[in-house]
């Protein structure tokens, strides 16, 4: 009570100017400190969240590219197995005649080298015959390499992996055998080669993928950010990284323990945590039981935020100095402008960047108001710019995901044409070539993403025609698009991923010939396009995995379907999209909802029509 009385007595003796200073100065200091702390906290949290999102998106692109490299190696192994069988058919008595053995070895090396020229992701190939003879795509070590291969135990490991058709991946390692460069770590795929007619083992095929193939995509897309990506295997060893000094070395024990603890409670595709001043993001790569780890320095990440805090403190100090010199003027005129400025600041702190304070005077309060309006306007411009950049980045990523379908389909179709020519089925090869040319002519026409439904149906018809030649006993199809709906806008390659999924995941596993039907109609003011098949169907968990774009099981990955859903939302809004209905052992219906032509105003140049 005595202290309160003393303060009141002291305050009562002050002049009005001093009273304004005594009240306003502490309030201004506290307000600026709170503003600086909240701004630092909000900007830091927002920056960390955006960085985490960007890292997750980059990680998915890296995982997709890595998965493509591994699949290419497996495809190369399948093709080489077929070619090796053909060589043995052409030289049935190769072991009996030395000259024939020499010719056979040259042909085998030539065949392996030609196949590797097609699959550039694979660095080297080695075929070890059942008698121990080594045929390689590079200059081998002769008898010493044969002994080294036999002593390595890799041949026994492949034989124990299973029957014909199974592949076995060995861990990333350095070795002196089965590699063209002993100093470079390699990832090795082993596969038994069986005589297709007799079932007799012919030998073992090994394909080597250099670590450099995997680490080439581990650099961050943002050169200004200090981001380090690297793969670790199930033993927590670094198997691919831009920093070559860390290859095949274990990661820090604290990080390994932290990742192990988080994995026990979090089974999601990726997770992030803070550790020793770094932001660590871990993304799982199911096909190899690997993990992609990204480490970002929080100190470097928040450097701009700290600079903004210092700038805010400097501006606050200047404002305090000005307030001391203008105490008399502030005592008469500061109350009303300061209240308006305080209200605006509170709105900004709450996240509303729209308030503008009217600068009615040219003194310090007017300067503060102008600086505040400029700061809010600048922050608003920067946020809008970041939002627009993120939208464009998302469009590029979706375009990249959609483009993954094209080279895969092209390689398989060219292989089909090659086989048809080898079998003297010239008319079918001609029809397949014409369908492939028509498909890419329409897909690449003018490079636009939106086309009309009629043209999308023609693209899909060419694709189905090619696939029916490849799998004549798997399915039949029909397409029914009414003429009045042919001009409906639709993102390019929206139907092709859906029919591809129907063939590979529904009809090929059916065991009998099925059908695919594509039809369109108008329902509730929307154009509905249905892709129906009578395949094996799927359960709710599988549907959820497809719609989310990720599943830990390799067979259920559905990047194409997820891309279609995202592009429909991007171009037409959340009201339009994709739905999946399926019954196990009965079939699946995938339904696309599109805006009716004329219901939404779109630029005429945004929709790609027929060639003129």
TrEMBL record:
* UniProt subcellular location: Cell membrane
Q: Which residue numbers delimit the HAMP domain?
A: 332-384
Q: What's in the keyword line of the UniProt record? A: Cell membrane, Kinase, Membrane, Phosphoprotein, Transferase
Under the heading InterPro entries, the entry gives: Bact_2-comp_sensor_kinase (IPR050640), HAMP_dom (IPR003660), HATPase_C_sf (IPR036890), HATPase_dom (IPR003594), Sig_transdc_His_kin_internal (IPR010559)
PROSITE patterns, alphabetically?
A: HAMP
GO terms, molecular function? phosphorelay sensor kinase activity
Xref: Pfam families? HAMP (PF00672), HATPase_c (PF02518), His_kinase (PF06580)
* Main location as per UniProt: membrane
What are the coiled-coil residue ranges?
none
Topology in membrane: Multi-pass membrane protein
The GO cellular component terms are:
plasma membrane
Q: What is this protein called?
A: Histidine kinase
């Amino acid at each position: 009570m005595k202290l309160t009385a003393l303060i009141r007595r002291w305050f009562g003796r002050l002049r009005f100017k001093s009273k304004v200073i005594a009240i306003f100065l502490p309030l201004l200091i506290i307000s600026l400190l709170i503003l600086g702390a909240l701004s630092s906290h909000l900007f830091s949290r927002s920056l960390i969240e955006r960085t985490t999102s960007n890292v997750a998106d980059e990680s998915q692109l890296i995982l997709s590219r890595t998965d493509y490299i591994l699949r290419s190696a497996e495809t190369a192994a399948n093709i080489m197995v077929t070619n090796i069988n053909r060589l043995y058919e052409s030289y049935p008595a190769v072991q009996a005649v030395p000259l024939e053995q020499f010719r056979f070895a040259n042909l085998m090396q030539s065949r392996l080298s030609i196949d590797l020229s097609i699959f550039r992701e694979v660095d080297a190939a080695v075929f070890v015959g059942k008698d121990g003879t080594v045929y390689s795509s590079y200059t081998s070590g002769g008898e010493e390499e044969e002994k080294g291969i036999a002593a390595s135990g890799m041949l026994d490991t492949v034989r124990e992996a299973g029957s014909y058709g199974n592949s076995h991946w060995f861990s990333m390692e350095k070795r002196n055998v089965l590699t063209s460069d002993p100093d470079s770590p390699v990832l090795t795929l082993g596969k038994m080669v069986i005589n297709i007619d007799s079932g007799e083992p012919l030998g073992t095929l090994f394909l080597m993928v250099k670590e450099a193939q995997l680490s080439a995509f581990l650099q961050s897309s943002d050169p200004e950010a200090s981001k380090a990506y690297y793969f670790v295997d199930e033993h927590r060893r670094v198997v691919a990284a831009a920093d070559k000094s860390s290859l095949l070395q274990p990661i820090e024990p604290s990080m390994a323990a932290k990742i192990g603890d988080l994995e026990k409670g979090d089974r999601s595709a990726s997770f992030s945590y803070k550790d020793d001043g770094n932001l660590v993001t871990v993304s799982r790569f199911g096909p190899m039981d690997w993990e992609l780890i990204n480490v970002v320095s929080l100190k470097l990440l928040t450097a701009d935020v700290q600079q903004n805090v210092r700038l805010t403190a400097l501006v606050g100090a200047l404002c305090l100095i000005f307030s001391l010199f203008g105490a008399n003027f502030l005592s008469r005129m500061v109350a009303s402008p300061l209240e308006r400025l305080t209200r605006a600041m509170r709105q900004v702190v709450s996240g509303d960047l729209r308030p503008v304070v009217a600068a009615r005077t040219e003194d310090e309060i007017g300067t503060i108001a102008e600086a505040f309006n400029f700061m809010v306007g600048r922050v608003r411009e920067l946020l809008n710019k970041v939002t627009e950049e993120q939208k464009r980045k998302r469009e590029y990523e979706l375009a990249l995901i959609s483009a993954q379908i094209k080279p895969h389909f092209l390689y398989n179709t060219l292989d089909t044409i090659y086989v048809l020519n080898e079998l003297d089925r010239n008319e079918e090869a001609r029809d397949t070539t014409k369908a492939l040319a028509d498909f890419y002519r329409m897909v690449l026409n003018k490079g636009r993403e939106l086309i009309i439904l009629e043209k999308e149906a023609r693209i899909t018809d060419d694709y189905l025609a090619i696939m029916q030649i490849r799998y004549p006993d798997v399915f039949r199809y029909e397409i029914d698009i009414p003429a009045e709906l042919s001009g409906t806008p639709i993102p390019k390659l929206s139907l092709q991923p859906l029919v591809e999924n129907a063939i590979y995941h529904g009809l090929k596993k059916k065991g009998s010939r099925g059908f695919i039907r594509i039809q369109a109609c108008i329902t509730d003011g929307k154009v509905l396009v249905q892709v129906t098949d009578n395949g094996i169907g799927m359960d709710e968990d599988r549907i959820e995995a497809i719609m989310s774009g990720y599943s830990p099981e390799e067979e259920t990955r559905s990047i194409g379907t997820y891309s279609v859903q995202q592009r429909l939302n991007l171009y037409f809004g959340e009201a339009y999209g994709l739905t999946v209905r399926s019954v196990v052992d009965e079939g699946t219906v995938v339904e696309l909802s599109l805006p009716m032509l004329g219901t939404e105003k779109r630029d005429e140049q945004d929709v790609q029509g027929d060639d003129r």
